[in-house]
Design a protein that fits this description.
alpha/beta, single chain
Length: about 475
């Protein structure tokens, strides 16, 4: 099959050019000046005049079917990757979740079983390490051999995922030895648990307390501590879902010294705030995630961090729990509200709003949503770029399209939208996953099982 994408503005992380893109089977065959390829030599022509043509988005932080708080995130790998495709994301990297007392390899087998044959787009895995011991450290090497080259640890959630500084140090030494990357959920969970207990003892049980008991200072402190441990061990460090100016300042300082420290943020921290957590009644439960939504002034710092590359990636931390029956588990006790928000479908559009608002350039939009995640997690140039030989993961995007986000029209398997009523400029027109049209004409043309597992190389930014 040969497909010609004709007349569009091809975006990359370095700029834009009017060009035609020739796709042959699953890969990009050529990118050339308009008119070089004749329509008679191809099977399908996709018109892209007045539209952007950009590499498919890579969401490097999702949680499909994740166990949490006695329930599971509401999107399966099938529904979640289908929703991703609707929003122009053609690759996700999810997390295999080790339970204490189990092995990394058996955990990875379990997650392969969840995803294999069900995904609409391509996928990879990170590994959550919650039980550091000699066996686990040895298994990290086997995971790397299987294409899982990044390991997430938690300074939060004592008794569930939490690792001590000593355990983190041991895992970081292994990362230094193997060239793999440690990803860190950086919040001081020991201190947070004390604040949560005090709030509940005082009868403060509303959802807003989730934010008030996880102050930004404790994210900043944990981020600084993680950076220090990484400096001692020489390990590459990737801070996940950074939400606060204090944490960003620590990352920026480390990067200024040349340390291999990277960070991502998420759309919810760019557009939502603790005011959403404080909505009347129990509405604020919809916005409970960790780290929590911050005061609005943090948003300007995060946008600036994206411009300066102190924030390198925007992922979603997509971890949806339905308001009914799941979020409601925390009525009367905010600490029992499942932590997570939906977002995999809207990341590309929400970041395009940053282009519309002048916060970032079109090239930077592509860089933080596709190209940098590909390089960060060992997928470039197979993913993250439109170039000969790359996978034909391509989005035709209408920058003048209009849409209103709503739970009534989204495709995620969750009963509310965190961005209900947001009016956006820009809309996905057509999506190709490895050369196959999966979204076109407002309809889904994909199928479960089209997506393939991606064995990843090491981070391509290490110095």
């Amino acid at each position: 099959m040969r497909t010609l994408i004709r007349g569009g503005t091809v975006l990359s992380s370095t700029g834009a050019a009017t060009a035609d893109v020739l796709v042959e089977d699953e890969r990009v065959a050529a990118v050339a000046a308009p008119g070089v390829f004749g329509a008679e030599a191809v099977d399908t022509v996709l018109e892209a005049t007045d539209k952007y043509v950009l590499p498919g988005g890579i969401d490097a932080h999702t949680h499909m079917e994740m166990p949490f708080g006695g329930t599971f995130s509401a999107d399966t790998f099938e529904t979640g990757t289908r929703a991703a495709a609707w929003g122009g994301t053609t690759t996700i990297i999810d997390f295999a979740v080790q339970k204490k007392g189990t092995s990394l390899l058996s955990t990875l087998d379990t997650w392969h079983g969840k995803a294999e044959g069900t995904c609409a787009v391509d996928y990879g895995f990170h590994m959550i390490v919650s039980d550091v011991n000699d066996t686990t450290l040895k298994e990290m090497e086997s995971c790397i051999g299987g294409g899982v080259t990044s390991f997430k640890m938690f300074m939060a959630y004592p008794g569930v995922f939490y690792s001590t500084d000593g355990e983190i140090l041991r895992a970081m030494h292994k990362a230094t030895e193997t060239g793999s990357t440690i990803m860190m959920h950086a919040e001081n969970g020991i201190a947070i648990d004390e604040l949560v207990a005090a709030a509940l003892a005082d009868g403060r049980t509303d959802p807003v307390q989730h934010g008030l008991t996880r102050p930004p200072e404790l994210e900043g402190e944990a981020t600084s501590r993680a950076i220090t441990l990484a400096r001692v061990t020489g390990a590459p460090l990737y801070i996940v879902h950074l939400s606060a100016a204090q944490a960003l300042a620590a990352v920026a300082q480390a990067r200024d010294t040349g340390q291999n420290v990277f960070a991502e943020t998420c759309p919810q921290y760019l557009y939502l705030s603790i005011d959403d957590l404080a909505k009347p009644g129990f509405e604020g439960a919809k916005y409970v995630a960790s780290p929590p939504l911050r005061e609005q002034h943090h948003q300007a710092d995060l946008w600036r961090g994206l411009r300066t590359n102190d924030l390198s990636v925007v992922s979603t931390d997509h971890c949806p729990f339905c308001f009914k029956d799941q979020k409601e588990l925390g009525r009367g006790d905010f600490s029992k509200i499942p932590n997570g928000m939906p977002g995999v479908e809207h990341r590309m559009d929400l970041l395009h709003q940053g282009v519309v608002a002048g916060e970032i350039s079109p090239a930077r939009w592509v860089e933080i949503s596709s190209t940098t995640p590909a390089r960060m997690f060992g997928l470039y140039p197979r993913k993250g770029v439109i170039a000969p030989g790359s996978d034909a993961d391509i989005v035709i995007y209408d920058p003048a399209g209009r849409q209103t986000i709503s739970a009534r029209t989204h495709h995620m398997n969750v009963d509310y939208s965190a961005y209900e009523g947001f009016q956006l400029t820009g809309k996905v027109d057509t999506v190709l996953s490895r050369g196959r049209v999966v979204i076109a004409g407002g309809e889904y043309h994909g199928s479960a099982g089209h997506g393939r597992f991606l064995a990843r190389d090491l981070c391509q930014y290490l110095n």
